UniProtKB/TrEMBL annotation:
Residues 187-302 form the Reverse transcriptase domain. SUPFAM superfamilies: DNA/RNA polymerases. InterPro entries: DNA/RNA_pol_sf, RT_dom. Coiled coil: none annotated. This is Reverse transcriptase domain-containing protein. GO terms for biological process: DNA biosynthetic process.
Length: 331
């Protein structure tokens, strides 16, 4: 059927290019539509034949064959993007997305602010920093705090204690460098890049300490969530899903799966509703105010092809610096 439709399409294309009579243009349009319908019918028959023959294979082989077939089919039907250039201004969000970060919450009268981080806690956090990580705009690497002398560590401890008590972060900590990293081999659009946020190493120490206190306030997260949590892995969930598929297929029971992928999940969090959600989680107001202080006034600059964009005021969403992965999971 496809061969006949293709042969007729080639014939109509030949005569339409050599004749000025309008009937050939109409016949060419009909041939194109017939060829499109023939290709669609052929694809439907191919899909039906594949899943019909799939029942003759074992359960594990069915999973592998289905995955390879869907991957091949997706590559065939997805639209091919033409070459395009991404400009530096394309990374700047639209002005209509601006959402003001709420004001600090009133803390309860008579409530005491938890003590600031101790020197021992700061030393433990510094020792856990990873080597070889890219620095922020201040060009201070994690290794600087890991291998510095005791006097520098004490000065950092005093600074973090002052930030915690006064709830006022240095402006340098709110300056974030955003570096786009390709997610595919040949990216053509902005959506094919993953944005990595580079912050100050001192801020990472402060945010990591807030993370430990936030974990105590929020409590344990259910086992339905496996990402961004210690001693958990999404591999366990995938193994459970594979076992369910095998049991259903072996028993001949119909099964419907639905996968949801939240596009730019971190970037779509509404900051205006963040305090109310955290209050619902019974997080103390002092912690909420300090989390809002981390978000308030944050300036981002995109590094693209050796050039820096103008400062961008954060309007919504959470960047990917601790403690925001845990903060996102609590929402």
């Amino acid at each position: 059927m496809c061969r006949l439709a293709y042969a007729r399409l080639k014939k109509m294309t030949f005569w339409a290019a050599r004749s000025i009579h309008p009937k050939w243009r109409y016949r060419l349009q009909d041939a194109k539509e017939a060829f499109r319908l023939a290709m669609k019918e052929s694809e439907e028959k191919d899909i039906e034949s594949f899943f019909k023959n799939l029942q003759h294979y074992p359960a594990g082989e069915r999973v592998n064959r289905t995955f390879r077939y869907l991957k091949k089919y997706k590559k065939k039907v997805q639209p091919k993007l033409s070459g395009c250039t991404i400009r530096l201004d394309d990374w700047i969000p639209a002005a209509e997305d601006i959402v003001l970060i709420p004001d600090p919450l009133p803390e309860l009268l008579g409530s005491t602010i938890p003590p600031p981080p101790s020197l021992t806690e700061i030393e433990q956090i510094i020792s856990g920093l990873k080597n070889g990580k890219s620095p922020g705009v201040d060009s201070v690497h994690n290794e600087y705090f890991k291998y510095c002398n005791e006097a520098t560590t004490k000065e950092l401890h005093q600074l973090l204690a002052k930030v915690w008590e006064e709830n006022k972060m240095p402006e340098e900590w709110k300056h974030v460098l955003v570096v786009p990293i390709p997610k595919v081999k040949n990216p053509k659009t902005i959506n094919e890049y993953r944005r990595i946020c580079l912050s100050s190493a001192a801020y990472k120490v402060y945010a990591t300490w807030i993370l430990s206190k936030l974990q105590q306030a929020v409590g344990p997260i259910g086992f339905h969530q496996a990402a961004f949590l210690p001693e958990r892995s999404t591999v366990d969930h995938l193994h459970t899903l594979q076992r369910i598929l095998q049991e259903r297929w072996n028993g001949g029971v119909p099964l419907l799966l639905m996968s949801l992928d939240i596009e730019k999940a971190f970037d779509r969090v509404s900051l205006s509703s963040l305090p109310a959600i955290l209050r619902g989680k019974r997080v103390p107001a002092c912690f909420i105010n300090r989390i809002l202080e981390c978000l308030r006034g944050e300036q981002q600059q995109v590094m693209w092809r050796g050039q820096l964009s103008r400062p961008i005021q954060r309007t919504r969403g959470l960047n990917r610096v601790v403690p925001y992965p845990l903060l996102y999971l609590t929402l």
